[in-house]
Task: inverse folding
């Protein structure tokens, strides 16, 4: 994903890989944050929204996407949204309980633009 992002940013700037300009310099010229960080930020923002919902809400209970009696396919199981959120919380050193306070949560998960 980051390769495609850098390809588009280089195209916006009018440079090619042959120009041998560093990715950080290209990103500073355009003034955007890395797409992976922005995706994590949006995933954690949605997680905060879910945490602030009442406990009986369908999205909080997991009724909306919980399937029973389905066979799992061969190979490694797919990464679930919950597992991705747990990984992001651990990687960014943010506690799950902080999501209750909306203003503190927004500050904790904010990705600044360069």
Result:
């Amino acid at each position: 994903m980051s390769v495609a992002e850098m390809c588009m940013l280089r195209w916006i700037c009018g440079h090619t890989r042959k120009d041998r300009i560093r990715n950080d310099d290209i990103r500073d010229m355009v003034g955007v944050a890395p797409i992976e960080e922005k995706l994590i930020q949006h995933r954690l923002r949605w997680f905060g929204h879910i945490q602030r919902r009442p406990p009986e809400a369908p999205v909080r209970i997991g009724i909306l996407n919980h399937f029973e009696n389905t066979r799992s396919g061969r190979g490694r199981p797919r990464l679930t949204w919950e597992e991705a959120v747990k990984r992001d919380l651990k990687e960014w050193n943010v506690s799950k309980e902080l999501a209750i306070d909306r203003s503190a949560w927004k500050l904790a998960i904010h990705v600044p633009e360069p």
